[in-house]
Amino acid sequence: MLDDDPRVLKATERLLTAEGWTVESFTSPHAFLDHAKVHQPHIAIIDIRMPTMNGLEVQVRVSKVSPLTRVIFVTSDDAPNVRRIALRAGASAFLLKPIQQEEFLATVASTFFEDASIVERPSRTFFAPLKHFNRE
Prior knowledge:
Order of helices and strands: HEHEHEHEHEE
CATH superfamily: Response regulator
Structural class: alpha/beta
Number of helices: 5
Largest sheet: 3 strands, antiparallel
CATH architecture: 3-Layer(aba) Sandwich
CATH class: Alpha Beta
Number of strands: 6
Helix content: 40-55%
Strand order of the largest sheet: 1-6-5
Shape: globular
Strand content: 15-25%
Distance between the termini: 17 Å
């Protein structure tokens, strides 16, 4: 998961770990991208508004370093043009903060299973510009 707000990361991590996901969080887009390049996460949860690099730019860069990574945006930016750009660029979902827990968890699960080639649950790897998830 990638978000510049550590409180958001901590709360989201608690929610996901309570559901059995192992999560790794990042406040730095650069650190997240370095990690994505090496670990090729299945899902990345990313915020839009961050000081050093916005989430749309992270989306473009992650698509180059980890082309199979699915992106879920979780943001307070509800500008229609931002949503449109994100979804046209291939984002799997665009959710608004504060997140609705059930919707968020359902979105993470359905995004993981979007890929028809994933048949088994082991080795589920998610990335979100908030953290890296591996559900076991």
